[in-house]
Specification:
The relative contact order is 0.13. The chain starts with a helix and ends with a helix. Strands 1-2-3-7-6-5-4 form a 7-stranded antiparallel sheet, sandwiched between helices. It is built from 4 helices and 7 strands, in the order H-H-E-E-E-H-E-E-E-E-H. The longest helix is centred in the first third of the chain and has 20 residues, at 3-22. The chain has 193 residues and is of the alpha+beta class.
Length: 193
């Protein structure tokens, strides 16, 4: 027998012994699930400084978007870096069906601090650049919305903050409507006051 065959037979024998040992019964009850617990790491630095994401309960958003096992909360994200004049945070959730239909909700807040002029300029630029922008009454210090069959958008300025809520859908799903975005915006503004 050649050295390669001898080596191959030896490796095969060791593999069989190891697999037999792994399958042996030791009369211990095994746990229903031997996988470790899944935990989220701490959110990225700056992604919870304002606290907007705390305004939305996971079950509330899950009921709104639907999808059961196809629902996913995306990790929060920071907008800007330490020392930036404008900083903020983003919360996002999505539903993706096996057939490709999808629906997402994204809520962002930016803190302009004491630079009210920059906030007003940004807000005006966004409103001018948004197709079909319509003013929304009784929300923050000013708000406008826009919607199509696939998207809905709500921009709100309140104090030093610019709040953006958007929803996009593909396939047979529909985006979250503007009145619902208004309710979510009101909840968010209540959280950060």
């Amino acid at each position: 027998m050649s050295r390669m065959r001898t080596l191959g037979a030896g490796v095969l024998a060791v593999a069989l012994l190891l697999s037999a040992a792994a399958c042996s019964s030791d009369d211990k009850k095994t746990a229903a699930n031997d996988r470790g617990k899944i935990t989220f790491q701490d959110p990225p630095k700056g992604s919870n400084d304002i606290g907007l994401c705390y305004a939305y309960e996971l079950d509330q958003i899950k009921d709104l978007i639907g999808g059961e096992e196809n629902f996913k909360r995306l990790p929060p994200a920071a907008i800007g870096k330490d020392g930036d004049a404008v900083h903020g945070e983003t919360c996002a959730w999505q539903r993706t069906e096996p057939n490709g239909d999808s629906l997402n909700l994204r809520i962002e807040i930016r803190d302009f601090g004491k630079d009210q002029a920059a906030l007003l300029e940004q807000y005006a630029d966004l409103q001018d650049g948004t197709i079909g922008a319509a003013d929304v009454a009784d929300l923050g210090d000013g708000a406008f919305s826009s919607s199509t069959e696939e998207t809905s958008l709500l921009q709100v300025k309140s104090g030093p903050y610019l709040l953006t809520l958007s929803s996009r859908a593909e396939g047979k799903l529909e985006p979250i409507d503007v009145p619902t975005l208004q309710l979510l915006a009101a909840s968010g503004l209540d959280q950060i006051k």
